[in-house]
Amino acid sequence: MSAPGLIPSTGVFRFAARTRHLQPSAIREILKVAESPEVISFAGGLPAPDLFPVTEIAEAAAAVLREAGPAALQYGVSEGHPVLREWIVGHLARTLGLACRTDQVLVVQGSQQGLDLVAKVLIDPGDLILTENPAYLGALQAFRAYEAQVVGLESDAEGLLPEALEHWLRTQSVRPKLLYLTPNFQNPTGTCLAAERRRAVVALAAQHGLPVLEDDPYGALRYSGAPAPALATLAEAGGCLYLGTFSKVLAPGLRVAWLVTPDRALHEKLVTAKQAADLHTSTFTQRVVTAAVRPPGFLDAHVGRLIATYRQRRDAMIAALERHFPSGCTWTRPDGGLFLWVTVPPSLDTQSLLPAALAAGVAYVPGAPFWVDRPVHNTLRLNFSHATPERIETGIRRLGAVLHAALG
Amino acid sequence: MSAPGLIPSTGVFRFAARTRHLQPSAIREILKVAESPEVISFAGGLPAPDLFPVTEIAEAAAAVLREAGPAALQYGVSEGHPVLREWIVGHLARTLGLACRTDQVLVVQGSQQGLDLVAKVLIDPGDLILTENPAYLGALQAFRAYEAQVVGLESDAEGLLPEALEHWLRTQSVRPKLLYLTPNFQNPTGTCLAAERRRAVVALAAQHGLPVLEDDPYGALRYSGAPAPALATLAEAGGCLYLGTFSKVLAPGLRVAWLVTPDRALHEKLVTAKQAADLHTSTFTQRVVTAAVRPPGFLDAHVGRLIATYRQRRDAMIAALERHFPSGCTWTRPDGGLFLWVTVPPSLDTQSLLPAALAAGVAYVPGAPFWVDRPVHNTLRLNFSHATPERIETGIRRLGAVLHAALG
User: Fold this and answer.
1) What is the pTM of this model?
2) ipTM, 2 decimals?
C-alpha cells in the first residue's frame, strides 16, 4: 500500500511530540456520544440555536460586504477592528461602569484565545495560577498547556472564599502569577462571587501584587437578583484584566471576544502574542459583529429575549429537579448564565453513572474534571439553556430515575 | 484622576510578564508608516483587494445562513467543519496528487495558527528548528514564541541547498525537532525549491528522522514554469506535515487554512492544542469558504483571474527594475507568488535607506529581519501583487532614484 503521495495513517515516521500537558477535554468526548437525537443533552455549554439572530446576522454580513467591500476580506491589524474596539469601550462603560480606552482592548478569537494568550505571555513552566474550585475546564486546559500549576481555592455558593485566598497568600512562600476568576454565573457551578467578597478579593490581590483575570462570558445573562460590581471596576490600581465575549449574547460560531488590559506593556505583549498565534481575528466576522451591535443595533433587544427564554428554562429545570431528584441531592440556584451544579449523595460516582444515564436518554457532564486537584465524584454539571422546558422536564425525570435506581 | 472603574493606562500595578521571545514584527511597524496614500507600498504581503471575490462571498454568506441557519453560528468541533475538510482532501488529490484522509486534516485560523500549533506541540525550550535562509518572518516569530532556536541553512535561487542540510545533520550532534520549508514562491525571496532538491531534502529528512513542515500558501499562484512535486507527496514514510490556506486564493480576512498531519497521534495532539488555543475556527467563515469552493464553485476561475493579473504585475515590476535600478542590483525572477527579493550593492543598508524611500513616496521591507541569524543588510523584499502596473512603474522609478542617489 504505497500509492503516490499517500500520507500513511499509521505513522511509519516517528514524531517526537511533547506528551505532557495537552490533555483532550473530557467533555468533548461526552458531547460526541450525547449528539444522538434520542439523548436529551444537558452536557454541552451551548446557547440555544433557535434563538440565534440568524436574520440580523445575515443582514449584517450583507451590509458589511456591500459597504466595506474588499476591506472586510483583507488582512487586518492584530489589535482588532478599530470600530469594534471603540464600541466595546462604550459598551463596558454603559453596562459595567468600567472605564477603559480603545488602546487597552484586544479582539481575540473567542474567550478561549484570551485565556491562551494571557498564559502564553505570563506563564513560565511551573508557575502557579490560583482559581476557584471547581473551575472552568477550558481555562485549566489553556493554562496547563503552558505548564502552569493551577491551585484551586475553597469556594462555596457565593464563590471563592476570601479567607482561603488570604490564608494561601499568607502561608505560601511561592508568588503566584495570576488569580483567575469567573465572578458571574460561573461555569460549572452557576454561582456568583458575592459583592463583599469581590472587594475583599481585589484588595488582597492588590496587596500581594497578584494580577487578576476576570472572565465574564455570562454577566449579561442575568435572570434574577442584582449585579455586583465587576472586579475590574474595583481594581483601582489596574491589576485586573477583563475578558468579555459575544459568544453567549450573539453567536459562539463567530468566535469574537475581547480582552481589556490595563497595563500598556502587557497589552503590547498580548498583541505580539496574538500576532504570532494567528495574525488577527477574522476581519469579516469582526465587521459582521460590529454591524450587528452598532446603533441602531439589536443586541439589547436580543439579550432581552435570551434572558426571558433562559429564565424560563432555568425555572423549569429547578422545578423538575425538585420533582424528580432523590432526597440527598442538592443543586445551585443560579441567577443567570447557562449552568447549574448538582451534588448527589456521596455514595454515587457521576462518572460511573453516565452510561446508565445515556442508556436512559439523558446526558450531563460528570463534575470530577472541573475540580482542580482532588476530584469530587458525586457532582455533575447541567446546562439549562439549550433544551426546551418540555425536554428539560423529560430529561430530568430520566436522570432522576437513574439516580433513584442507583441509590437502590 | 481616579474615576470609578478607571483602568489606568500607566500601569500602577506591576505585571511580571515574560519578556523574552515575543518580539513584534518589524514589518508591522513599517506597514503603519506605509499606509499613507502618497506612498506606493511594496511592503505588505497583501493580495490585491480589487480582485477579492466580494460578490461571490456575499452570495456564499447569504446561502450559508439561509440553508444551515443556526448551525452556521453554533460552536463546532475543534477539527473543523467536516464538509470543508472533505473538500480539502479532494482538492489536494486533484491539485497536488496528494492522497490524505479527512481525519488527517485540521482546519486552522490562517496558516499562522498552523505554525503556532505545530510549535506548541513539538517544541521544548531550546529545541532546534532548521529552515531555509532567509526565511518567513511569521514562522520565525511563531517558533521563537516557544523558545525554539531557529537555524538558517544556506539557500540560493533554487531554495535550500541539500548539501547544507546534509552537512549540518552529519556534523551536529543535536537532533533538530523540525525542518520548516516554503518550497513554492517563498516569502521573502519568491524562489522555489528545485525538484531534484526536494527529493534530496525529503530523503535526508527521512534518513535522519527529521519531521518536515511544508508551508504552501502560494503554490496555486504560478505564472510561469512547471510545478515540482509537493514535499508531502515525496515523503512516503509520512514524515511531512502540509500547511495550506485560502488566504491567497480567496481572502485572507476569512482566516481559514488547514494542516494535514500524517501521524494520528500527532494529529490528535494538534487538535487538542487547537482546542486549548481557541476551541475551533469560526463555524461561519468555515461554512462561507465551503459554500464558495464547493461545486459548482468559482475557485478555479477566480485563481485563473488572479494568475492573469499577478503575472502582469510581476512582469511590470521586473521590467521596471530593469529600467530604473542601478547596475550592481540583482533580483529574483519568481514564477509565482507575491514577492521578489532584491540585492543591492553591499555598500548600501536597506534599513537606513527606508526613510529616504518613504520620503520619495515608496515603501519596501528591508531584508535584514528575514535572515535567521546574521542579517544581510543589502537586501530587500518587494511585493508585486498589490499595486497596479502603473503604480509599480512609478514606485520602482522612485525607489531606483533613491538607490542611484545613495550610490552617489
Assistant:
1) 0.93
2) 0.92
